[in-house]
DNA sequence: AATCGCGCCTGACGGC
DNA sequence: TGCCGTCAGGCGCGAT
């Protein structure tokens, strides 16, 4: 799915078109996403003004006069701004039209995403209330990760992909950040020195920042809200290249599975 | 409490 | 050509 940079890219792409606009029409073609889209959604949204859009973790939060709409892009979701309804591509499950005539289109082939109405108090919703720090929060430091990791035997890769620890990091960026930090993805989180966590935090922030600047990563499904792919794909160092030589030391990159997610790493650079 | 695997879906790809 | 297994950017849930 879209990880933080893809969600952020989406947010920046759609926000300028939609701020302060009122919803005039809602079309739902498929209600079965990760959870069923609430049947009352069209009534909830009708004639409501969109005040702001925020990102929290990999969620987009649309603040309307009367409450918050939550959208998650799951594994294969994307949002587009389109000026006409036609053509309607396969998997265009929801279209929301605003007063300026533009449509916000939700496309999601695998339907692991979500569209939920959260009402007035979104941050107490179960999906949001246990989230960890945003990676660009000043409180997200090596010491923070080190403290959280104390005594934990979980591998570092699933540890940094745990949204209760730090938000927005998924399989691609976890893989890349660990490579940049020289940390083996299977190393127990509780057995990593404080100093190495400093390095890791810096790597996570730098990689996410660069990826945002380049419009995210497009493997297949993701596209920016204008339909263009993300260009960080060409900056990936090791994700997607198992068996290839390490860009740093030429050793053959290896592939392992950690908590059911494939993980590429360099057996020489990452310890 | 912490950790792990499964399953939700569609589609692309490789091997036979 | 087609069929079948495997894999894919996430994440909540139930089992251990």
Biggest sheet: strand arrangement: 1-6-7-5
Question: Distance N terminus to C terminus?
Answer: 28 Å
Biggest beta-sheet profile: 4 strands, antiparallel
Average pLDDT metric: 96
Q: State the helix count.
A: 7
- Principal-axes geometry comes out as globular
Which series of helices and strands comes N to C?
Answer: HEHEEEEEEEHHHHHEE
Describe the structure using short key phrases.
DNA-binding, single chain, 25% helix, 4-stranded antiparallel β-sheet, 271 residues, 10 strands, 7 helices, alpha+beta
Characterise the protein shown here:
This protein is α+β, with helices and mostly antiparallel strands and 271 residues long. It is 25% helix and 21% strand. It has helices spanning 4-18, 41-45, 126-129, 142-149, 156-161, 171-181, 194-213, and strands at 23-28, 50-56, 59-64, 67-72, 78-82, 92-98, 103-107, 114-119, 254-258, 261-265. The strands form three sheets. It has a four-stranded antiparallel β-sheet. It has a four-stranded antiparallel β-sheet with strand order 2-3-4-8. It has a two-stranded antiparallel ribbon with strand order 9-10. A hairpin with a 2-residue loop joins β3 (59-64) and β4 (67-72). α1 (4-18) runs parallel beside α7. The structure holds a DNA duplex (16 and 16 nucleotides).
């Amino acid at each position: 799915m879209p990880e933080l940079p893809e969600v952020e890219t989406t947010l920046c792409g759609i926000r300028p078109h939609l701020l302060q606009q009122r919803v005039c029409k809602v079309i739902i073609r498929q209600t079965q996403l990760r959870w069923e889209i609430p049947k009352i959604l069209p009534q909830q949204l009708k004639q409501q003004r969109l005040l702001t859009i925020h990102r929290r973790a990999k969620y987009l939060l649309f603040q309307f006069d009367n409450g918050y709409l939550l959208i998650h892009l799951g594994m294969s979701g994307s949002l587009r701004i389109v000026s006409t309804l036609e053509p309607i591509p396969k998997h265009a499950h929801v279209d929301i039209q605003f007063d300026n005539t533009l449509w916000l289109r939700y496309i999601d082939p695998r339907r692991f995403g979500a569209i939920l109405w959260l009402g007035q108090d979104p941050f107490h919703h179960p999906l949001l209330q246990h989230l960890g720090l945003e990676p660009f929060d000043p409180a997200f430091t090596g010491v923070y990760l080190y403290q959280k990791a104390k005594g934990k035997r979980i591998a570092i890769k699933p540890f940094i992909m745990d949204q209760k620890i730090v938000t927005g990091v998924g399989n691609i960026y976890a893989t890349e950040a660990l490579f940049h930090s020289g940390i083996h993805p299977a190393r127990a989180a509780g057995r990593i020195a404080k100093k190495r966590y400093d390095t890791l935090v810096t790597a996570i922030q730098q990689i996410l920042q660069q990826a945002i600047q380049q419009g995210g990563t497009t493997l297949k499904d993701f596209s920016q809200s204008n339909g263009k792919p993300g260009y960080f794909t060409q900056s990936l160092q090791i994700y997607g290249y198992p068996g290839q030589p390490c860009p740093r030391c030429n050793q053959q990159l290896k592939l392992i599975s950690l908590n059911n997610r494939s993980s590429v790493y360099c057996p020489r650079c990452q310890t």
